[in-house]
Amino acid sequence: MPLPGPEVFDEVQRLVRNLIEMNAILRNREHCSIRLVLNPDRMVIKEAQRTFTYLNLYGYLTDAVIVNRIFPDDLEGGYFGAWLGHQRRHLEQVREGFAPVPVLTSRYFEEEVVGSAMLDRLGEELFEGRAAEQMLHTELAQELSMEGGVATLRLPIPFTEKAEIDLKKVGDELIVSVGGEKRTIILPSALADHRPSGASFEGGTLKVTFDDVRSARPQHERV
Predict the structure, then answer these.
(1) pLDDT, tens digit, for every residue of 118-139?
(2) What is the mean pLDDT of the chain?
(3) Would you give the end-to-end CA distance of the chain in angstroms?
(4) Handedness of CA 170, 176, 182, 185 (dihedral sign)
(5) N or C: which end of the chain has fewer CB within 10 A?
(6) Any idea what the CATH number is for the domain that residue 147 is in?
(7) What is the number of structural domains in the chain?
(8) pTM score, two decimals?
(9) Cα–Cα distance, 64 to 137 (Å, whole number)
């Protein structure tokens, strides 16, 4: 079988250079951000949270979360009343899980959002007079790094200076409780066999380390 010619290797090198340049563009938080779009459905929310964690892992900024297809309040008590209640609870989960990233909401329109006119209506409701290109959040909501088999999660907690912080890992969920506040973080599959091994709180930032499950350390940490 003949070896590929030099033009093939040139194309591979060009692809690698383009990927490196694209990575630099996406990680430039002054000029680039990502917005996650989801429906208020439990499984969709979990997948969006997982994507959110991966984006933070690679240093990509998410400056807003958009929740669309929300039923209007006038459905209260009607045929879709129960669905409306479910959506309200799921919307609270979105605000809890993605805090402090802004959450923008859009109602379920009477027709499909197709074409410039409907997109204008959607934009007007989402951004409420703000420019759509305006950066809505400039800091990583959480930072996850992995080195030497140990993962480290840094989570800013601006609403408290001194508090008892409780951590619990259930499956792929890390549940962080501070007083009456609770936040659920969906961890990437790479941490499926890891458990919290240490935690510290300093300067308004919670730092959690994870070791491989074979380390046999406690799954429950208190700071």
Answers:
(1) 999 999 989 988 888 899 988 8
(2) 82
(3) 62
(4) negative
(5) N
(6) 2.60.40.790
(7) 2
(8) 0.67
(9) 7
